[in-house]
Amino acid sequence: MNFKNLILLSFFFISLWHYVTVLERFLEIIKVGFFSKLFGFSKQDTTEADVEPIEYNGYLIYPEPKAEGGQFRIAGRICKQFDDEVKTHVFVRSDLLSSKADAESFMINKAQMFIDQTGDKMFG
Asked: Which of 84, 92, 108, 113 could disulfide-pair with 75, CB 3.0 to 4.6 Å?
């Protein structure tokens, strides 16, 4: 085997390895995406412990934007302690913003307005 054939053979295996790697990644994305949507799993779910609450007039606001298609949906929780029980209102809006920080900030502002307008009636 001469040097030229050795070079061509090495390029062939490198190209083959590259295509196999790309194909494996593609199949992994499809599999994970398909099964997660089918069974309702999501890698990007935010757990309650990950979020630092903002205190406002006795309420705790947890901004928890949801990643959707490269953008972030405004979402979160509003909680308040009543005697020995914590009541929670889940807050989800239709707005989508391009950055997570903007979605968190917007959620806090909207939650404060919602608290001022509805008070404890939100727990209903």
From this structure: 92
